[in-house]
Structure to design on (208 residues):
DNA sequence: TCTTGCTATCGCTAACAACG
DNA sequence: CGTTGTTAGCGATAGCAAGA
């Protein structure tokens, strides 16, 4: 790596409970020594991801964008399409990191329409090369961003569980439906907006 | 033996093409 | 038009294989 670049990734996209988190992280050659052990967050235990996240935050210019369920549901209604919502979030995180550390290259995971994100970045007049690749998390900056996003998602999900006194599991499994039913029993169906992504089919399973 | 790590499977999302 | 199947990404989980 001769020059540094920015990596972006998101977490919480497939989880019924909890926020959607988008993170962008700049990694330059000068950071590599500090980032030992940084790889795709999916290959790391939750605890390891949290520790590495602290290291990354100490080392690299970064931005973590947390969209809590209430805001997420609101944005989803406005935007109507998860890809555009993701593009919006990615662009915002990237722009903030560019303010901290200008550079010319951004690498993201493959997602359905990279053109949307490219257009958004170019609108701002930035001369940025956006590389959208399958298994982008093999890149260290994308891996670092995935860890930041993952750790933040875990912390926020724990915070929500604590706040409402209901254990909110990851993913969208039967355990998630059961937890959703318990939550609604205690707080009513309107309150679901505060902890869950309502456009999932899981919502019908919880309320039905 | 016990602990890793990889892979297959499943459920969830969205986009797109083919079809009735 | 709407439905259905395919492709593709994400997360969770179980089971098997390889290494300490």
């Amino acid at each position: 790596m001769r020059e540094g670049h920015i990596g972006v990734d998101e977490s919480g996209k497939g989880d019924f409970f909890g926020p959607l988190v988008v993170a962008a992280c700049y990694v330059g050659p000068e950071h590599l020594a500090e980032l030992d052990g940084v790889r795709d967050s999916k290959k790391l235990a939750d605890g390891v991801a949290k520790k590495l996240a602290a290291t990354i935050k100490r080392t690299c210019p970064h931005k973590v964008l947390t969209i809590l369920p209430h805001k997420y549901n609101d944005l989803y209604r406005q935007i109507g399409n998860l890809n555009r919502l993701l593009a919006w979030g990615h662009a915002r995180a990237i722009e903030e990191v560019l303010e901290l550390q200008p550079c010319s290259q951004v690498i993201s995971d493959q997602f359905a329409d990279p053109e949307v994100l490219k257009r958004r970045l170019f609108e701002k007049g930035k001369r940025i090369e956006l590389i959208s690749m399958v298994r982008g998390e093999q890149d260290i900056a994308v891996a670092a961003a995935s860890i930041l996003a993952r750790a933040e998602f875990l912390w926020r999900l724990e915070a929500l569980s604590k706040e409402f006194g209901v254990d909110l599991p990851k993913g969208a499994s039967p355990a998630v439906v059961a937890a959703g039913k318990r939550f609604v029993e205690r707080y009513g169906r309107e309150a679901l907006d505060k902890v869950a992504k309502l456009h999932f089919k899981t919502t019908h399973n919880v309320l039905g």
